[in-house]
Amino acid sequence: MDVERWRLRIYAVGFLIADALYLAAHGAARGTVFWVLALGALAAIVYGTATGRGRWLRVGASIFIVLAVAVPVVETAFNKAESLALAVAEVPVWPQLLVTLVGSRVLTAECELEFAELWRNPGRGAAAVELQSTPAAVALGAFLTLVFYLTVPQLMPLEAGQPSAILVSAMQGGTFVHSTIVFLFFVILAVILDAIRLHVADRAVLAAFRRAVSAADLSAAIPHPRSIMVGKLAASGHTRAARILTQAIDMMAGERAASDPLTALSYDGFRDASRRFVRTLLPFLPMLGFLGTVIGLATAISELPHGISDATGRSFDVSASLAGLAIKFETTLLGLMASMISSLALNLLEKREAEFAAACLLAVDGALKSERKGPDA
Questions:
Q1: From the CB of residue 235, how many other CB atoms can be counted at a distance below 10 Å?
Q2: CA angle 21, 22, 25 (to 5 degrees)
Q3: Higher pLDDT, 37 or 370
Q4: Higher-scoring residue by pLDDT: 191, 236
Q5: Are 264 and 245 in contact (CB under 8 A)?
Q6: What is the 3-state secondary structure (H, E, C) of 275-310?
Q7: pLDDT of residue 126
Q8: Is the pLDDT of residue 309 over 90?
């Protein structure tokens, strides 16, 4: 736990440095409300870090991240009535990149520490504990969105007449719906990336369990696999790998405690809550795409009756008026693409997680067989 606390403190110090750079770059000539929010958020971050009160740290970091993205990026896009992509190109956003990236790490580390403490001491009464931090996903999603709008124009220049022009135009769309789809996609991707991080940590626990079993096979006294979990791997008790290994060991040895089913259900509840959040967001991607298309079509069609004929009675070329309607389907294209990519990434992750659970059961089975055979078998 001391290592986790120090890691959180290091991230918090880095976040404060990023905040100071942001204020130096964009804080000049800002109003009273801006500075009250900024200084209040900084005070909450310092207080939460110094006292170990994660709620204050979480609230302060979240407020400052929202403030950094809103001023001046969103502010510029709103005042000039232009797309978020153009606003990112006009405003120096390197301070926002630092704030959102380091801030996401602070929120992730704080969430992991709170969950580990709750798991080791369920009676501590902590509130708003998550397996995966939602504010961290939003912060990382904002970071990825800024990077996306910075790099796409350079990596995929818009060239008229090229088949990829429609795709590039959709990704750089100038409406609020375009930006919302892009941001929501990266928030979902951030949750999936955090789940991958947890999966990698679980694999490290399984690898450590296998190494301990292999080392025991070479020794004169072979410990029961349960002793490995409560000994060398005790610090990893809050991970999914430890839960699966411990439950499998107790089932095979016939020593399952009465509290173990509740422990398994509680962990699955935290994990299912994170997945439910992702699966709730996924349908919004195509729905937002259809919404943008419907709004665009309604606007275009409402203008048609005014241009069917001119004052001299000459007919009007309706096809020319409808020539720009193709662009109205960009949001649908963008939403469908984002939905397909997100769904594929989530399904691949869950496939790997299911395979990992089976590998844990095989590892326990092999460990128990080695324990029964002894070193001389």
A1: 14
A2: 85
A3: 37
A4: 191
A5: no
A6: HHHHHHHCCHHHHHHHHHHHHHHHHHHHHHHHHCEC
A7: 56
A8: no
Task: Please give the single-letter amino acid code of residue 370.
Answer: S
CA atoms within 13 A on the CB side of 61: 40
Q: How far is CA 66 from CA 97, 119, 187, 348, in A?
A: 12, 30, 14, 31
HEC string of 64-109 equals: HHHHHHHHHHHHHHHHCCCCHHHHHHHCCCHHHHHHHHHHHHHHHH
Cα-flanking dihedrals φ and ψ of residue 315, to 5°?
-70, 150
CA distances from 11 to 56, 93, 106 (A): 15, 21, 5
What's residue 342's pLDDT?
Answer: 96
pLDDT at 202 over 90: yes
Residue type, 195: A
Euclidean distance between CA atoms 57 and 42, whole angstroms: 9
State yes or no: pLDDT of 177 exceeds 50.
Answer: yes
Handedness of CA 265, 268, 274, 278 (dihedral sign): negative
Plot region of 128 (φ>0 → left; ψ -120 to 50 → alpha; else → beta): left
For residue 354, which amino acid is it?
A
Confidence (pLDDT) at 137: 96
Asked which of 103-112, 162-171, 195-204 is least confident by mean pLDDT, the reply is 162-171
Helix (H, G, I), strand (E, B) or coil at 315: strand
Both tokens assigned to 231: 């000994």
Domain segments of the chain: what residues? 2-155, 161-303+319-377
pLDDT over 90, % of the chain: 46
pLDDT at 315: 54
Alpha-carbon 211 to chain mean position: 32
Asked whether the beta carbons of 5 and 106 are under 8 A apart, the reply is: no
Residue 315, beta-bridge partner list: 309
pLDDT tens profile 346-357:
999 999 999 999
Alpha carbons 270 and 262: distance in angstroms, whole number: 12
Q: At what angle do helices 134-155 and 54-69 cross, to 10 degrees?
A: 30
Residue owning tokens 């969950």:
115
Q: Which tokens sit at 344?
A: 């594929």
Q: How confident is the model at residue 258 (pLDDT cuts 50, 70, 90)?
A: very low
Residues 6+ apart with CB under 8 A from 184: 141, 281, 284, 285, 288, 338
pTM score: 0.89
